[in-house]
Amino acid sequence: MKISVGVLFAFAACALAGCATMPSPQAARVAEVGAGMVSGCHSLGTVHGSSLVDGVGQSTGVRNAKTEAREQAARWGANAIVWTHVTQRYWGAELVTGDAYKCARNIAGGAS
Fold it and tell me: What's the whole-model pTM score?
């Protein structure tokens, strides 16, 4: 089986830099906010995310883990998330935990 150099290069680049997971439109609408911005919002529970992208792609791993948690929050009907724990390791899984909220007011564009 013959594999093109371009395919190998793309795979190597992805493996070294990490491949970012794009959020769904619903997850993209879940705002990352500070704890002070969710007073009066309804708590929906704790969401979790993880990613095995680490090493030089560590920041991509954290983004992927946050995307996974935001997808879960979106499925629950949340429009805001407050990160309560973000684990960044050079080697090993990136783990995030956050509290998902449903807020009556638009809080998009909050601080992460």
Answer: 0.71
